[in-house]
Structure formats: structure tokens, C-alpha cells
Amino acid sequence: MHSRIRTFGEYRAAYKRSVEEPEAFWAELARRFSWKKPWDTTLEWNFAEPSIQWFRGGVLNISENCLDRHLQERGDKVALIWEPNDPTEASQKITYRQLHERVCRMANVLHNNGVGKGDRVCIYLPMIPELPVALLACARVGAIHSVVFAGFSSRAIADRIQDAACKLVITADGMCRGAKRIPVKEVVDEALQECPTVKRVLVAKRLHLDVAMKPGRDAFLDSELRKAAQKFEAEPMDSEDPLFILYTSGSTGKPKGVVHSSGGYMVYADYTFRNVFQYEEDDVYWCTADIGWITGHSYIVYGPLLAGATSVLFEGIPTWPDGGRFWEVVDKHRVSLFYTAPTAIRALMAAGPEDVERYKLSSLRVLGTVGEPINEEAWEWYHHYVGKGRCPIVDTWWQTETGGILISPLAGITPLKAGFATLPLPGVQPVLLDAEGTELAGRGVEGNLCIKFPWPGMLRTTWGDHERCRQTYFAPYPGYYFTGDGARRDEEGHYRIIGRVDDVINVSGHRFGTAEIENAINEHEYIAESAVVGYPHPIKGQGIWAYVICTPRAPGEEQLQAEVDELVSKLIGRIAKPDVVQVVPGLPKTRSGKIMRRILRKIAAGETDNFGDTSTLLDPEIVDTIKEGALVKL
Ligand code: WTA
Fold first, then answer.
1. Which residues contact 484 (CB under 8 A, 6 or more apart)?
2. How far is residue 505's CA from residue 487's CA, in Å, rounded to a whole number?
3. What are the tens digits of pLDDT across the range 212-250?
4. What is the mean pLDDT of residues 497-525?
5. Cα of 372 from ligand 1 centre, angstroms
6. Residue 420 Cα to chain centre, angstroms
7. CA of residue 497 to ligand 1 center, whole Å
């Protein structure tokens, strides 16, 4: 049985089988789980509608597979290690049995508060144990969770709650990140002024703040939990019933609610986790992402728990109290598998090697990265200073939409190359297409990265708007799933991800659409128009550069930047603030009124010539004017 690959030869064999007999391949893997009823058909699909169904007719509950399935064999094994923000506060270890009980209690609380199968629950929580418990409790009652990263603004929360018509919100009184304290409940209260569908709010106590509680609507989670029974029969779910919604940015309009299924997602999260990291029963695994992003969903909660692993849940940040915090946690909990983002590596690299050299890091066995392309320098630093030259680095490429990792080395098995995500996992059939949609055959080619066959973890739809899902992912190249990324296949057939080919900016591994940020900036009363582009940033990967056209009464540039910061923080979140705001007299537009972003990107990147053909511009002179203004900011 090939559920766990151990050699490169086995990888090749598994890959071949997954292409030749995909249904048999995945069906065998799915049999590892407990199903309340076996599935009728393994796969039915077409990418035209699109309609994708894995394990149709199968009935299961993913929370049972994460918890109950392990109780007999590893009930007393630690499932979660919670490491708080402040290193002087005690960490917590939660066994599978304890987690099972906590999830059952929380499921009862949800049930007692009127949440049932198919209802949407918004979760806006810091990285505390209540967060994974809330996800699993939603899954247990059959509710669809929609986690909103606890750095988004009240406006962004309201948009997401309204889109999914959530019935209940789970939040906290406050949160701490580094030296900062954030009044989370206040942010939620503001959002809820515009969310009539929300009937109940459950509040976890993290900072024991004296928060305002709205009678009839708000309740403290701890008192609800005390009243709840410790058993909860898991709701039978169809394999294709939605498990969760997670909002992500695209090149147009508002963020989309990506919908993931129950059965296929489960099979995929488990298989990719165990194989990419080459997980062993006694590993301690730590993914530093936030559960507010897909990486946390699949590789802090579902993947590791399905595999019966010990997963670290970290509340803090890499740079507080100092740049050694990650490494301190690695030594303290003897972490063996460590998964982080290039932006964190670059930030720690910039702080110098002293902070990492203070720690042994002898427990580490495998390192991983995710979220953005990793530059060679950061890769080498990670390999040398963290992995001490002996740990393989898995550069994992995937997306919110893909549910799990698609292209990545298998740790210790696939030959590594800095900056390369290397080879597709079994079941994944990537192709590179040219602009006309023709598949580029052979090696040494570069094009738009698409996938031509379904895998179990892929998105099924976008919430409330299936047509948008079709338009965004399946219409650009009929017959293919389009990723939005460009990639290169080198002479050895290894993939290198180049970056987005659409108007999506990846800032510290977080996705934003340029239109989304422009819409926020345009709300400023003295800004007439704006154009936002990404530019190379030494720590964040990409920074945000905003070109704005002002009306006559606008304040000076410095004041304007402060006001734009505030506006974007309010409408989206602090993480989307532009790094640079440049006031310009006009934008480079074609005669048909289209902004030539290519030019703006080049200017922000510090290029002074090679702007290509500018003859189609309405006012070619504007390029020089913008360039001069940009030079003083670079
Ligand atoms: C980028 C995060 C290069 C890519 C899991 C993708 C990467 C977007 C890598 C998805 C990687 C992710 N190398 N680029 N290893 N991993 N990306 O939805 O542009 O937050 O399309 O999912 O991040 O970001 P998302």
C-alpha cells in the first residue's frame, strides 16, 4: 500500500499510478478513514461547469477522523501544544482525549445556541486553543466554518459575515501579539452593526478585559461550556457537503469565499501532510502560520490531526521579545518538523545570526516554506543556520483554492534545488500554457501554470456565486484549472514558481487584489483615482506602491500617506497598508482608458528605462513625471 512514500522510486511509481488509475489510487487512500457509509463513485467531474465530486455518496465526519479514530491507539498522546505569546506564560499540552472532550463540549454549545448542519459560523479568534476547537466543533455539528484572520478590520469582517449570512460568531475579548494588545470584541461589535443575520456571539476570555456584552446576543464561552455535555454524536456529512469557506483575494472585486468539501479535503490534507513532511509517529510538528489562512487550516489543524500528530499552536510573533523566539520554542518543545514562510525567514535573517546561534535546534529534521517564492539567499540561510546543513527544505507550492500542497519535494526523497518547488505530488497534473492556451511540451519552458485533472482537495465553488468560480479559475483556459501563477519547468523537469501573472499582490505571503486596495484608497475624499502595484521588497517579498491622483484641496503627501494608511486599515486591515503613496498628476493610460500597470510596476521596481512601447499612451510624457517623483522615494 502506497499511503506513505519512502523512496524516490516509490514516488515515481505512485505518481505513475495516480495518473493512470486516479480513482483506484485515491480510493485506496480514502479507505484509511472511518466512513459511516462507503462512497458510490470515486470521482465525477467536468471542468466546464465546473462540477467536481469525490467519493460521492460517502458519509463521514472529519472531526471523528481527527479525534475519535485516534482515541484507542493514541488517546493520551499530545495533539496540540499551545505556546502563548509571552514566553513567561505557561504552555499547555492537550491530548487527543482532552481535545475530543473539548470539541464535544463546544459542539454542544453550538447546538444549544441553534447551530446545525449547513449553518455558517464566523470565527474571529487569536491563536488560542479555542480556535482549533471551534473549527472541529463546527465540523462535528455539520456547520460550515468561515475563519476570518484576526488582523482584518471590522469592515472586512462584516463583508465576510454578510456574504455567507453567518448565524453565530465565535470571538475573544482581546488578543496579544508581541507587545501589542488588541480589543478584539470591540472590532467585532462594530462589524455586527451591519450584520443582522448574526443571532449569537460567543466570547472566549483571553485577556480578561471588561468587555461590553449585548444582552440576548452575547455570551461568554466558558460559562456556556460549563453547561455543556461532554459527548456529542458527530453529524453524518456527505462527502461533498461543504466543510468550510475561506475568503481570499483575486484580481477583481471583493474577496471570494472559497468552498472546500468534507471527504476529498480530508483525504488530501492527510496524504500531503504525511508525505511532504515524511511524518513519523514521534515527530513534533510546528507550522507557524495563523489558522486564519489556508496554511493553518490544512497544516495546523486538519492534516496533522488526521495523521494523529502533535501540532504546535503558537500565539506569538517571530520577533518578540527578540529574534530568537522561534528557535527558543523549537528547543523547548523539541520540534522536529518546522514549517514557516519566507517573509519570516528574511525578517530573522536581517536581524543577524546571533539570535539563531544561541539555540541548539538539534531536534529539527525537516524544514518547510510556503506562501511565496523563496529567494536563494533566504533558502541558504534557512538551510545553514536553522537546519545546520542537515535538514531538507520542502518548498511547498499551493493556494487557498487547492486545499493542500500541489508541488513540493518530499522531504529527504526528492532532490532539492534552492528556489524550486520541484515536482508535483502524486495525483497532481500540472501543465504550462502559453497565452493562447497551448500546452508547452518538454523542458526548459515557462508559462501559465494550470492543472489538468482534479485532485480531491480542490475547491468546489465560490460561496453564493458559482459563476464567479467558473469565470476565475476554469474559463481562462477551458478544460484546465488556472492557478494565476506563472512557472518554469527546467531542463530536469523541476518546477520553479515565478509569481502571480494577474493583479494579485503577495505581501508577506498574504494575498491582496490591487482593485481591492484601490477601492479602499478611492474612498478618500481628496483622492480622485489610484493605481496600486506590487514591487520587490527585501523582507515582505512584495511591497504595495500606490499612485494617487488628488483633487485640489488634498493635504501634503506625508499627511495624505497617514490618512491613506488609516483608511486602508479601517476598510481592509493593517496588513494591506501601502508602503509608498506617491501623488501623481496623471496615470499612464491607453487611448481606451486602460492603465498600463506594466509601466507602473517597472517604475516602482526602480527601473529607469526599458518601458517598452509607450506610443499607445494618451500622454507618454506622464511616464517621465511619475518616474521623477518615484526616484525620491526609492
Ligand atoms: C504564492 C498559500 C512560490 C503563489 C498556501 C500562490 C508560492 C499564492 C508558494 C497562494 C511557493 C504559495 N512558492 N509562490 N512555495 N506558495 N505561493 O492562497 O503565488 O494564501 O498563487 O495560499 O501564494 O496564496 P494563498
1. 250, 251, 399, 500, 501, 502, 504
2. 16
3. 999 999 999 999 999 999 999 999 999 999 999 999 998
4. 94
5. 5
6. 20
7. 9
Of all protein residues, the one whose alpha carbon is nearest to atom 14 of ligand 1 is: 372
**For the range 528-532, what are the long-range contacts, defined as Cβ-Cβ under 8 Å and sequence gap of 24 or more?**
529/587, 531/587, 531/595, 531/597, 531/600, 532/505, 532/578
User: Does ligand 1 lie within 6 Å of residue 263's CB atom?
Assistant: no
**What's the per-residue H, E or C state across 322-376?**
CCCHHHHHHHHHCCCEEEECHHHHHHHHHCCCHHHHCCCCCCCCEEEEECCCCCH
Residue 221: CB within 6 Å of ligand 1?
no
Mean pLDDT of 407-411: 98
CB distance 141 to 235 below 8 Å: yes
Place of cell 508535483: 424
Residue 407 Cα: closest atom of ligand 1: 15
Average pLDDT over residues 141-166: 98
Distance 216 CA to ligand 1 centre (A): 42
From 379, 399, 425, 495, mutation site for ligand 1 pocket: most ligand atoms within 8 A of C-beta? 399
Question: What proportion of the chain, given as a percentage, has pLDDT over 90?
Answer: 94
Residue 616: predicted pLDDT: 85
Asked whether the predicted pLDDT for residue 37 surpasses 70, the reply is: yes
What span, in angstroms and rounded, lies between the C-alpha atoms of 535 and 440? 28
Q: Phi/psi of residue 152, each to 5°?
A: -80, 155
Please state, rounded to an integer, the average pLDDT across all residues of the chain. Answer: 96
Question: Hey, whose CA ends up nearest to atom 6 of ligand 1?
Answer: 399
Ligand 1 centroid distance, CA of 500 (Å): 9
Nearest CA, atom 1, ligand 1: 372
**pLDDT at 581 > cutoff 60:** yes
* Enclosing H/E stretch for 295: helix 294-296
**pLDDT above 80 for 2:** no
Whether the predicted pLDDT of 146 surpasses 90: yes
pLDDT at 541: 94
Cα atoms found within 13 Å of the Cα of residue 577, Cβ hemisphere only: 16
Q: How far is the centre of ligand 1, averaged over its atoms, from the C-alpha of 109 (Å)? A: 36
Whole-number Å distance, alpha carbon 399 to ligand 1 midpoint, is: 5
Which of 543, 552, 544 minimizes the C-alpha distance to 585? 552
Name the grid cell of 325: 523566539
Residue 265: which of 287, 243, 249, 246 has the closest Cα?
243
Residue 1 confidence (pLDDT) above 70: no
Q: Which residues pair with 439 in a beta bridge?
A: 433
Q: Is the CB of 382 under 6 A from ligand 1?
A: no
CA distance 198 to 516: 25
Handedness of CA 243, 244, 250, 254 (dihedral sign): positive
Task: Taking residues 17-40, report their average pLDDT.
Answer: 98
Q: What is the pLDDT of residues 115-130, one digit of tens each?
A: 999 999 999 999 999 9
φ, ψ at 185 (rounded to 5°): -60, -40
Asked if omega into 196 is within 30° of 0 (cis), the reply is no
Name every residue whose Cβ is closer than 8 Å to that of residue 538 and which is 6 or more positions away in sequence. Answer: 346, 350
Name the residue type at position 491: E
